[in-house]
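Hey, quick one: can you model this chain's 3D structure?
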Amino acid sequence: MLKEPIRPRLFAYLGGIVRSLGGEPLIVDGVADHVHMLLTLPSTVTLAEAMGRIKAKSSHWMRQGSRDFAWQAVYAAFSLIQSNVAGVRKYIDNQAAHHKRMAFKDEFLSLLKRNELENEERFLWR
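Sure thing. Here's the predicted structure for all 126 residues.
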C-alpha cells in the first residue's frame, strides 16, 4: 500500500525514472493501491521496457528502509491524442476524490471496456 506520507516522494521518483529514459512525466498521482502516470516516451524506448525499468527501480527505492513492497505484475497503458491530454491530466489530478466514489477494480475494468480491450478477469488480479 502506498501510504500518504510516501506518495509525493514516490511520485517525484517515478517522474525521475521517466526522465532518465528520455521521456517526460506530465503528471504522476495516485492513491493507496495504484498510480496513474501521464507521460511521453522517446521512440527508442518500448512501453514494456519503460514499465520494467519504472517498476524495478521504484520497487528497489520503496524497499529501502525496510519497507515491504512490490508492484502488481499487471499494468495497463493507453495512448491518446493531444486534444485529450488536458482531460486525462485533470482525471489523474483528481484521483483522491474519484476513488471516494469508485473502487480501483471497477475503474480498471471500466477503462478496459471503454477502450474496447478484451480481458479475462482471472488474469488481472494476480
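One thing worth noting: The longest strand covers residues 24-31.
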